[in-house]
Amino acid sequence: MVEMRDISRPPAAPAEPEAPHRPRRDAPFAPASDERPLLLGHGGKLLVERLGTVPYEPAWELQNELAEQRRQRRIGDRLLLLEHFPVYTIGRGGDEANLLATPERLREIGAQFLRVDRGGDITFHGPGQLVAYPIVELRDPLDLRRYVRSLQAAIIDTAATFGVEVRAQDGLIGVWVEGRRKLAAIGVRVKRGVTTHGLALNVNTDLRWFAEMIPCGIADKEVTSLAAELGHPVDMVAVEDRLADALATAFGLTVTGARSGPIGPAGSSEQ
């Protein structure tokens, strides 16, 4: 029998949709787990692409292309590992006064200056610095703070593998040695759930490049590298391997390799 509604009473109001639960800003950091995943593709694969040394702008365009493919579910989660030719970049809202080099000085030292769409202030990318660009899809509701702390955790784990103790600093992005020397910078963007940009870890970087700017707009801090802390150069491939594994663990993924070299239109490496 079909139950009839009492037409003498107004119909019940539709239930209000439940608002998404936004993460608390003061919540303690929790690594990705089956109980509390960070990424939409938790438990899946992280394809690592090693691009060598590349100019900044083509790599930026590639990130945006791959991010759009990830949103369309045409590719899975990706990690780009690379080095850049010398370039100073400044994020949204960053202060260009933190670049000390004049245009003439930039030409003299052979470096670019670009304003980009990540968060954060000014930073430097160049040879000897390992740059990691995760192109991954976060779960909804987005927890950007937890994502950034996952990047920090991966850097801390990587540095410890090579005998350098670093930690995060309250109120500051990146990771630091003894709270004074910055080893790695972080600046990210999330658009429609997918991340671009990422982190820059100084491995064998020539630290004289940082004299041309106020790093991250913080005048009373220094910059360092793994090589500077250890007193000898560090094998870049070994750092790449460790950072890829640490990021995959932080994201709740498993590393799968790809051929090194240029990336084609669909995201796969080409010979």
Proportion of residues in β-strands:
25-35%
Q: CATH homologous superfamily?
A: Bira Bifunctional Protein, Domain 2
Query: Secondary-structure element sequence?
Result: EHEEHEEEHEEEEEHHE
The percentage helix is 10-25%
Radius of gyration, whole Å? 22 Å
Taking the alpha carbons of the first and last residues, their distance comes to: 69 Å
- Structural class by secondary-structure content: alpha/beta
Largest beta-sheet characterization: 9 strands, mixed
Total strands: 12
Low-confidence stretches: 265-271
Integer average pLDDT: 90
List keywords for this structure.
disordered C terminus; nine-stranded mixed beta sheet; 23% helix; 271 residues; three-stranded mixed beta sheet; single chain; 5 helices
Topology (SSEs and partners):
Layout: E1 45-54, H1 56-71, E2 78-84, E3 87-90, H2 103-109, E4 112-115, E5 122-125, E6 129-135, H3 144-161, E7 167-169, E8 172-177, E9 181-191, E10 194-202, E11 222-223, H4 226-230, H5 236-251, E12 254-257
Parallel strand pairs: 1-2, 1-12, 3-4, 9-11
Antiparallel strand pairs: 2-6, 3-5, 6-10, 7-8, 8-9, 9-10
Helix pairs in contact: 3-5
Q: Could you characterize what this model shows?
A:
- By secondary structure, this protein is an alpha/beta fold.
- The chain has one domain: BirA Bifunctional Protein, domain 2 (2-Layer Sandwich), CATH 3.30.930.
- Helices cover about 25% and strands about 25% of the residues.
- The chain contains five helices and twelve strands.
- The strands form two sheets. Strands 1, 2, 6, 7, 8, 9, 10, 11 and 12 form a nine-stranded mixed β-sheet that branches. It has a three-stranded mixed β-sheet with strand order 4-3-5, with no helix packed on it.
- Helix 3 runs antiparallel to helix 5.
